[in-house]
């Protein structure tokens, strides 16, 4: 059975994958479903959901379409979340591999840097980073990645330390393989599964951090984000609570979807290990 | 017979202040011979294999000399010697296919492209008598049985036609029937290719069935070495005699006496 089939055989995996696919298509098809700038004033202000067929989810205080905001917000959330998690994984894998291989002083030094990043709360780090450097999407991505790369780095190092003592690494050496080749062809593929399972959790965390940053007004103000939609709905929470509830629910479902997907992925990869053992 | 490799006062110590794992070993390995290294756990036999293969950990100190008159240069891993590990479950990479792992050595040392290396790998799988070599090429190690995995590991070790094959306890993780098959296979391969075989084991009975010479190790030292027949019939040292006497088969009285009712 392939990994995909095993992923799909778990209820978590199927649900998570379905949610993510819906979100992904919403994000990708946003310009087709709702052309134009999602931040433009489209109609009357504060239309409640389902009252006007032109605005199924209503409009906000300035008369902007909530559905358009939601669709484009999915785009931002997923893009920023995935980009940040990807950067964090790449950085973590590189640092972890380097530390695990080099050992000795290099390992010590790199791990103390990892310690430093693990001690500082990820969100505070991102907040400080964005507020000093300035708000733009790449900066937000980088800020989130900086707070999350330490976990994969630690996990990768632990994996490398365990795997480099395996007989198949010794047998690659007696075949005459170059150390760099051993690192990338023999060790990395075996170290990857647990780090990949961690990656989904990192994506979920990154999406939440992005939403929190834009809730505090530290997201890019020129694009629609769920965090800023929730923030704007806050001032009319009593009279038009849907303005906060709708993007909030979207955020919760997204994070839930990512976590379910990661759960399913973990099970599928775990089966893999169990079968290999 | 010409000398393939000779060890002169070879000593190995793991870390500072530790007892020597090999202590002043003098041993000649003749080209084309089948030499068994016999010893109990901790006797230094695996250290010898790892020293020959250059697999000692960084902290180990090596004294004495290792000469390779049969090669004229230090051995190149994979090309000049092949190495078979004890446990084929851990010596094969779980994420690479069987074909890839065998083809690797052939591609690297024989100057073949991937395609030719795969053809050679399939031939090798046939030689080590894996059923349906074409299917096994695409299989992963966990899909094979222990004995089949060890055959694959042997195929990978001889892929680049090395002159020396080192089998470090290659049969110890297998059951008796499979042990016999692997020994027969090694014997056949070594004869056909004219390889030198270094067969490391604790099982003197298994080894004496097919090797030319036996070297007995005890407590990091070489106790005695000589042709199988003379070592078995007239052991020079008490230790070897004890080792031969301790061989167990079904006729041996049980270690734990049955309780009388």
CATH topology (level 3) name of one domain in chain B: Rossmann fold
> What proportion strand of chain B?
15-25%
Question: What's the average pLDDT of chain B?
Answer: 88
Summarize the amount of helix of chain B as a percent range: 25-40%
CATH architecture of chain A: Orthogonal Bundle
**Gap between N and C termini of chain B:** 61 Å
Provide the CATH superfamily of one domain in chain B. Answer: P-loop containing nucleotide triphosphate hydrolases
Structural class, from secondary structure content of chain A? mainly alpha
The number of helical runs of chain A is 11
Oligomerization: heterodimer
Mass-distribution shape of chain B = globular
Uncertain regions of chain A: pLDDT < 50 for 5+ in a row?
none
Separate helix tally of chain B:
10
Put the structure in a nutshell.
By secondary structure, chain A is mainly alpha-helical.
Structural overview:
The complex is a heterodimer of chains A (277) and B (261). By secondary structure, chain A is an all-alpha fold. Helices cover 76% and strands 0% of the residues of chain A. Chain A has a single domain, classed as MetI-like (MetI-like fold, Orthogonal Bundle), CATH 1.10.3720.10. In chain A, helix 2 crosses helix 11 and helix 3 (66-102) packs parallel to helix 7 (150-163). Chain B has helices at residues 45-53, 88-91, 98-110, 114-127, 133-137, 146-157, 176-193, 204-208, 228-233, 238-245; strands spanning 3-14, 20-30, 34-38, 60-67, 81-84, 164-168, 196-201, 213-218, 221-227. In chain B, a hairpin with a 5-residue loop joins strand 1 (3-14) and strand 2. With 261 residues, chain B is an alpha/beta fold. Chain B has ten helices and nine strands. Chain B has a domain at 3-71 and 163-243: Rossmann fold, CATH 3.40.50. At the A-B interface, helix 8 and helix 9 of A face strand 5, helix 3 and helix 6 of B.
